[in-house]
Give the backbone structure.
Amino acid sequence: MFAPVYFDYNATTPVLDCVREAMLPYFSQRYGNASSRHEYGRAARLAIDTAREQVAAALGAHPTEIVFTSGGSEANNLFVKGAAACMKPGTVAISAIEHPCVREPARELARHGWALREIAVDGAGRVRLDDFDAALAKQPGLVSVMFANNETGVVQDIALLAQRAKPGRGWFHSDAVQALGKLPLDFRRLNADGVHALTVSSHKIGGPKGAAALVLDKRVELTPLIAGGGHERGLRSGTENVPAIVGFGVACEWAAGRVADAAQRLGSLRATLERGVAAQGATIFGLGAERLPNTVYFAVPHVDGETLVGQIDRAGYAVASGAACSSAKPEPSHVLMAMGVAPELARGAVRVSLGADSTEDMVNGFLLALAETLRRLRGLAALAA
């Protein structure tokens, strides 16, 4: 079977061998329900407890602060909707570049009496401090700013933002799904700065899909999205997905010990990639800002992103035309619109995100394929003119 080189690690990652091996017994031999009191159930409960400790250790959190969910989208919704349900309607402030699983629940609050304030970003995708402070003047009850953007890879100074928001006494949340495994994360230190909740996800770090966590300061009161058997301290009912949670724990343990080395290696590959695409006339988004070491988001003027992604796929390289969750939508990225990028250039956006299996030969091969693809597309455009 034809298998393109995979350069879409921000969308998802292959499951690690050590993760898969750890999960396998919980599909067949240790298949108990963790709420059961017999040996099978106790084994499942012990596995979840161990995974909770592994996730907490990777994040500098206490195990009791880890709330397992089915994915990052659920965790973000649990915070935004769950916290709002325990408060009188007020202001919810989010950055203009949030993932839809933060934007949409915030917009839902706005339809139910809340005021929604979107915080502007600059041309590099960084939260503008003047607009952030203006949003804080509204004394928002909820603030959510993502740690690192899934499209551009731009990293926000979450500690600084949380410190500025702290006097307002609202709850501060950060979607850290893209940061886990790529940047050091220390919830205890962030919590001291004023961060009350983080969202992280398994399948971005070599774990399985179907497991994620909301890391939650226990002072934050939430109304659960799912009521039932009172699982996860009553915050998320439903029989636990034991194999996925086990895999998440192992993936966290694996990733936590490799953050520094991975950042150095991927940063070097990113530099090679950026030099190569810039030499071919591409505009790279987020330049000048701190970014994830694995992410390059670019556009070639007058070249449609969807077309380029399709042609590059045929040439043997799997990349993305934007966030995987919104790739079916034809309109330009809301992230690039917030950054002030012209719509015609934004429609050409292509994201290359590197990972554990990426090599320099793969990057150089991609650059050759890109050059040939652009030559062919420009030739066709000239013939049609």
Notes: Residues 5-13+259-384 form a domain with the Aspartate Aminotransferase, domain 1 fold (CATH 3.90.1150.10). Residues 323-327 have pLDDT under 50 and may be disordered. The longest strand covers residues 91-95.
